[in-house]
Amino acid sequence: MSRALPVSMPLFPSGPMVASKVPGIELRKYQQAVIDRLRAHVTSEKDPKRRLLLVAPCASGKMVMIASMIRTSSLPVLF
Q: Is 62 helix (H, G, I), strand (E, B) or coil?
């Protein structure tokens, strides 16, 4: 017999993106700049974006940037 666990916290208590710092990951300056620009597109009041495309050169840390964005997102992420 399975029992559902009670949920005591709201799933998404804040806006679409929260703190930009992730513990244990030290981003490079350009990586943080990219994340900040993407976050600005997502949180824009005039025309918020729901789908983003990140294009960067080889070995620029795209997966690190994506992982950082996913870890700081308060909304479900499909990747």
A: helix
Instruction: Evaluate if pTM is beyond 0.70.
Output: no
Which tokens in the block code for residue 51? Answer: 């789908």
Cα separation, 12 vs 1, in Å, equals 29
| 13: number of Cβ within 10 Å | 8
For residue 7, give both structure tokens: 């949920």
Q: Which one has a higher pLDDT value, 2 or 78? A: 78
R_g of the chain, CA atoms, integer Å = 15
Tokens of 1: 């017999």
State yes or no: pLDDT of 29 exceeds 70. Answer: yes
